[in-house]
Write a structure and sequence with these properties.
Number of strands: 5
CATH class of the largest domain: Alpha Beta
Enzyme class: oxidoreductase
Distance between the termini: 25 Å
Protein name: Superoxide dismutase
Oligomer: single chain
CATH architecture of the largest domain: 3-Layer(bab) Sandwich
Subunit structure: Homotetramer.
Organism: Nyctibius bracteatus (Rufous potoo)
Shape: globular
Number of helices: 8
Radius of gyration: 17 Å
Order of helices and strands: EEHHHHEEHEHHH
Cofactor: Mn(2+)
Length: about 220
């Protein structure tokens, strides 16, 4: 099993790192946030960010390490039944790690506004306008039943941008084949302490902290 996603290093460089390298691997670790917990206020408050990062994301990382260790043992024993039974834990926790690692860098206290350059031209080409794109991604995110994510992804085969929703912690690329550019977490733990059950208010606010430089960088990378 190989999952992959973007992981920021401490230097801020974005690297593609494999998840599940079972021969000789480092344990997955919780990435540092590139800003303080309170930096996204008033749009996302410090209490949410602290719990979301240090508790929720940390749990995905810890459980992923445990699941991979068990999977390694099952491989060594040739225990196919155990390998199959571990797939849901690998998918859920591996997806949670991938998704949140992208999410933190998709946000910035200096974010908001509109993208520029190639990304903006692609958005206008594929959605008609930035306003239409924003409306579509918001609607997809509002419409997620229960927990999940709204995404802007890149369809490499068709050479165009698409919006999509994924349930729970299913990773976009592993689920749909789309390369993730911008993810919006619509699990209740991402907004409930501040916005209660009014998901649309959270989605309206989050556009003020979208890090378009990061999204544009991802777009440039996946087009190479």
């Amino acid at each position: 099993l190989l999952l992959s996603g973007f992981f920021p290093s401490r230097s801020g460089a974005k690297l593609i790192a494999p998840l599940g390298c079972l021969v000789s691997r480092q344990k997955h670790t919780l990435p540092d946030l590139p800003y303080d917990y309170g930096a996204l206020e008033p749009h996302i408050n410090a209490e949410i960010m602290q719990l979301h990062h240090s508790k929720h994301h940390a749990t995905y990382v810890n459980n992923l390490n445990v699941a991979e260790e068990k999977y390694k043992e099952a491989l060594a024993k040739g225990d196919v039944t155990a390998q199959v039974s571990l797939q849901p834990a690998l998918r859920f926790n591996g997806g949670g790690h991938i998704n949140h690692t992208i999410f933190w860098t998709n946000l910035s206290p200096n974010g908001g506004g509109e993208p520029k350059g190639e990304l903006m031209e692609a958005i206008k080409r594929d959605f008609g306008s930035f306003a239409n794109f924003k409306e579509k991604l918001t609607a997809v995110s509002v419409g997620v039943q229960g927990s999940g994510w709204g995404w802007l992804g890149y369809n490499k085969e068709q050479g165009r941008l698409q919006v999509a929703a994924c349930a729970n912690q299913d990773p976009l690329q592993g689920t749909t084949g789309l390369i993730p550019l911008l993810g919006i977490d619509v699990w209740e733990h991402a907004y409930y302490l501040q916005y209660k059950n009014v998901r649309p208010d959270y989605l309206k606010a989050i556009w003020n902290v979208i890090n378009w430089e990061d999204v544009s960088s991802r777009y440039a990378t996946c087009k190479k």
